[in-house]
Amino acid sequence: MIGPSPRVELCLTDNPENDEAVWRECRPRPAQLRFRDRLTGFFWNARWNETLYLTNCAERFIQGQEEHASREIRRRLRSDLLRAEGEGDGGNIPAFFRFRLVFVSRDDDSLRRDVAFVSPPYQTVDPLDR
């Protein structure tokens, strides 16, 4: 069966008990690509390959391979957060993060978003994942 792939969304918080989270898409696609970026992407696009792997892990999680898939999703999200902090985009990153898997489908003229899973809070920095 071919169906929609789950999207991975992320929220950051300093308080793991906080239920009022602001969710954002993990690794959003760029709104526009320059010609040079498109041409380079034909030959080498490691970031896109890793994003496809993240989507594959989300699909495996939904199919029941939860332990491995959850660990891989957490590792890649932590890596993204630490990379953003190192590049100066992240500033002080919060101590915890959560992720969720969302299915997006078309319902008449609108988009329907079904949340399939919400993770517990994880520490943003975990020495075991490095």
Structural overview:
It is a single chain. The chain has 130 residues and is an alpha+beta fold. It has helices spanning 35-43, 46-62, 66-86; strands spanning 7-13, 24-25, 96-107, 110-118, 122-123. A hairpin with a 2-residue loop joins strand 3 and strand 4 (110-118). Helix 2 runs antiparallel to helix 3 (66-86). The longest helix is centred in the middle third of the chain and has 21 residues, at 66-86. The protein starts with 6 loop residues before the first strand and ends in a 7-residue tail after the last strand. The mean pLDDT is 83.
What would you say about this model in short?
This protein has helices spanning 35-43, 46-62, 66-86, and strands at residues 7-13, 24-25, 96-107, 110-118, 122-123. By secondary structure, the chain is of the alpha+beta class. Strands 1, 2, 3, 4 and 5 form a 5-stranded antiparallel beta sheet that branches.
Helical coverage, percent range: 25-40%
What gyration radius follows from the Cα positions, in whole Å? Answer: 16 Å
Number of helices, where a helix is a run of at least 4 consecutive DSSP H or I residues = 3
Structural shape: globular
Write down how many β-strands occur, each being a DSSP E stretch of 2 or more residues. Answer: 5
Taking all residues together, what is the mean pLDDT?
83
Secondary-structure element series? EEHHHEEE
Distance between the termini: 36 Å
Oligomer: single chain
Uncertain runs: none
> Helix/strand-derived class?
alpha+beta
How many strands, what sense, and barrel or not for the largest sheet? 5 strands, antiparallel
Percentage of β-strand residues: 15-25%
